From TrEMBL:
Signal peptide segment: 1-24
InterPro entries, per database record: Cyt_P450, Cyt_P450_CS, Cyt_P450_E_grp-I, Cyt_P450_sf, Cytochrome_P450_fung
Cofactors that this protein relies on: heme
Family: Belongs to the cytochrome P450 family.
Name of this protein: Cytochrome P450
UniProt: heme binding residues: 436
Pathway the protein contributes to: Secondary metabolite biosynthesis
Pfam family, one: p450
Gene Ontology molecular function terms on file: heme binding; iron ion binding; monooxygenase activity; oxidoreductase activity, acting on paired donors, with incorporation or reduction of molecular oxygen
Species this chain originates from: Lactarius akahatsu
Key words of the record: Heme, Iron, Metal-binding, Monooxygenase, Oxidoreductase, Signal
Keyword flag GTP-binding: no
Keyword Iron found: yes
Amino acid sequence: MIHLLVATPLVGLVLWLIAQLAQRAFRNLPPGPKGLPLVGNILLAADNDWLASPQRKDDYGELMYLSVFGKGILVINSQRVAVDLLEKRSNIYSDRPRYISFNEFLTENLTFFLTGYGDLWRRFRRPAVEGFSKSVVPDFYPIQNREAIMLALALVKSPPSAKRHFRRHAWSIILSINYRLPPVESEDDPVIIGIVDHVERLSHEVEPGARLVEYFPWMRYIPSRFAKWKRDAQYWFVQDSLRYERLLSKVVDDLAKGIDQPSFGATLLKNQGKYRLSEREQAWLVGDMLTAGGETTSNTLHWWLLVLLAHPEVQVRAQAELDEVVGYARPPTFADLPSLPYIRAMVKEVLRWSPTVPFGIPHTSSADDWYEGMFIPKGTLILPNMRVVNFDTAVFGADSARFNPARYLDEKGQVKVVMDGREEGHASFGYGRRVCPGRFVAEGTLGIDFATLLWALRFERPEGAKGELDVNTPVHSGLVAHPVPFEFKAVPRFAEAETLLKAALDLYE
């Protein structure tokens, strides 16, 4: 009897997989590598380096199709196709994958960036878009300016710890913007440690092959006492909910005391009737906007520092612009950025050249579709390959693989549009209805960071640095691609730099 109970679901699974494969065998799926029987392309799908390689476009074209246990994965290797599907047909390409462990147990569908396309997502999206719109982000300039100065001072004192400084800096900004918390003094702050652990859990949960339940959905019905993955997810949902609710309660207390400083949390709470979110939904939405901005900003700064070392001529040109526009008597402010086109172009270029999340957050097709004679089944996982799209020579020129901010400047030295009318000039913020709502804050943070750091410091390779700089080998961790570790030193550009930074910081006390 026991053997029968075990064999029945296995036989059913095999028959289902055969039916899926047979059904699709007669349809003209996009080209892709041949897979193994039943398991399909399971090994290739878990290899981010292989998937993201420009060679895949040469091998299979603008669309590449893989299958894992009968589940389709479509990699888009073209800006043209990405726009056609994810923007022009956004009504059926705006859904997210149904990660069973992640959505049903670890977050209970409350993570905005992975919430399915429906009513809850719409209720999340409206406050996120409005709370980080172009008209609102100037309210956050004082926070970003202050933190840029703090970062520069930190690098003056202990430059070898750039990764720690970048991480503290990024989380401190986003905590202030979301909850109006005071500056975080150290990466070892308990709030940051808790959030970083949370982000790492979420990232691990969506890695290919992390949970068998994603390929064998019947496993969701295993009782928790027999499934450690389910017990852990349920436990952490409670703990993460409490963390988010505690953070937002600080904003609630401030508002009750008549303290109304600009923050996303305050905007959400003051418009409860308009946005129709429960207290838990509010807490998770603010928390999601927090987690989305911390690691990505820190990682982008790390890539930027790497390319400055690899392309010293970029640093020289940026500093010449700063010297002409800002001078040496004070650090830059947001008021200077409109007159710093090369710095603004540098922001666009680093986001284009080193997309922190190489495939973005996956889309899913919510209906069967045909595109240029190829069949795309309902439920297909859609991965826009940013490292190919952002390197398209037809858009960015023959030197698209090279870091060159000047590609965003016209003949008069002013910032120009180079990509399908996209103001940001790249695809790294995503597509269609799922484009990142925090992109204006991200651009502002990077702009004032680059300006302040390059005004105060010169970045160099230390004497005796080991190995060559590797700008072409991202190290993947979950959804994020990090640069290979490297050595550098930061040297004040003039004797008064530290004194002037401290004087400017005092204005924000």
